[in-house]
Amino acid sequence: MLAGFSTSGLLIVAHDACHQSLTPDRRLNRVLGTIAFLPALHTYSLWRHGHNFLHHLHTNIRGLDYVWEPLSPSEYSALPAMSKLRYRFFRSLPGHYFYYMFEIWWKRRFIPRKKYLSTVKKVFWTDFTFVVLWICASSYVLILLYSHSQNIAIDTVSMWPVAIFKGILLPCCISQMLMSNTEYLHHTHPAVRWFRDPTEESFDDHQARVSIHVQYPQPIDWFVHWIMDHTAHHMQPTIPLYRLNATQAKIDSRSENTVQYHFKFSKLLKITRQCKLFDDETGNWTDFKGQPTGVTSELGD
Predict the structure, then answer these.
(1) What is d(CA 71, CA 62) in angstroms, rounded to the nearest whole number?
(2) How much is the CA Rg of the chain, to the nearest whole Å?
(3) Each residue's pLDDT tens digit, 14-72
(4) What's the average model confidence in pLDDT over 277-295?
(5) Is 294:207 a contact under the CB 8 Å cutoff?
(6) E strands of the chain, at which residues?
(7) CB under 8 Å to 139, separation ≥6 — which residues?
(8) pLDDT at position 199
(9) CB-based burial of residue 175 (10 Å sphere; 0-12 exposed, 13-18 middle, 19+ buried)?
(10) Is residue 80's pLDDT more than 80?
(11) Which residues lie closer than 8 Å to 299 by C-beta, 6 or more apart?
(12) What is the dihedral angle through the alpha carbons of 214, 274, 280, 113, rounded to the nearest 10 degrees?
């Protein structure tokens, strides 16, 4: 569990490095970001392509921003039965923790796949090689340590899966479950809409409308490196995470368009109940039958 939370923290550090805001040196950011991504088994350049170039430049634009992109009622109705069950699971409270692992990481941030990339660049495979080398090296070290602690010969193959599961797979899964929840909260809310086409709003106005400030208790906010001060981050991604808090406070006090609320699990439950499908024609969230799912004020502040 501790390794999982630490891996999640490293993901946030790597995220900052990928935005060139961790240090003033671009090469150092590249090195630190590549290393910090390794425990979570993320390929640096794939993250950069999907997160920096697609998600940040086209936030909540359907067909371009794939992170937690909802289906419309008509799109959902056209799905086969198993695909509907899969979608319903990921849009549930327990299921939303697993979305990132299967829909984002596995498909788009681990192995370069032609299906999800317009061009498979050489740098994608180079960075993926670093991840593979990390898996091999860390697996060997884990097997060595586990065999020593259990006083078992290192060539006892039966204990290898246990060592790899405890030392690599489980921490990676925990970090990705936390990331799934984090990215869900960043842009999913009854007051936040999706768009079929780029809007005519200014970049800052658009980001203020679609990026959410979720207020955690201060110790938790510190622990997650202020990653939930997300409106400020989307309006200016080069601000270091450790300076987001002051910037977010200014935005909240000056803008009437921002969506912000104090986190409670009861509010997370309400959001997952209300945000199932998004009706492009009305600009409203609906349930799986296409019925509007309530008003924003029900969530409180």
Answers:
(1) 9
(2) 20
(3) 999 999 999 999 999 999 999 999 999 999 999 999 999 999 999 999 999 999 999 99
(4) 90
(5) no
(6) 212-215, 259-262, 277-279, 284-286
(7) 160, 163, 164, 167, 168
(8) 82
(9) buried
(10) yes
(11) 189, 190, 261, 267, 270, 271
(12) 70
Residue-wise over 57-95: b if at least 16 C-beta within 10 A, else e? ebbbbbebbbbbebbbbeebeeeeeeeeebbeebbbeee
- Containing 183, the helix (H) or strand (E) segment is helix 170-187
How many Cα atoms within 13 Å fall on the side-chain side of residue 176?
24
- Does residue 214 sit in helix, strand or coil? strand
The crossing angle, in degrees rounded to 10, of helices 122-149 and 26-37 is 50
Reduce the DSSP state of residue 156 to 3 states and report it.
Answer: coil
Q: Enter the DSSP assignment of 243.
A: G
Task: Write the CB contacts of 115 (distance below 8 Å, at least 6 apart in sequence).
Answer: none
In this structure, what are the phi and psi dihedrals at residue 214, rounded to the nearest 5 degrees? Answer: -95, 120
Specify whether the CB–CB gap between 63 and 195 falls below 8 A.
Answer: no
pLDDT > 70 fraction of the chain, expressed in percent and rounded: 97
Torsion over CA: 76, 79, 85, 87 (sign): negative
Residue 257 confidence class, pLDDT cut points 50, 70, 90: confident
**Three-state SS at 175:** helix
Nearest to residue 276, comparing CAs of 77, 102, 80, 70? 70
CA neighbor of 44 nearest in space, from 70, 16, 82, 18? 18
**Amino acid identity for residue 230 in this structure:** H
* Tokens 């006892």 belong to residue: 156
**29: its two tokens:** 């950011």
HEC readout, 252-272: HHHCCCCEEEECCHHHHHHHH
Q: Which residues pair with 212 in a beta bridge?
A: 259
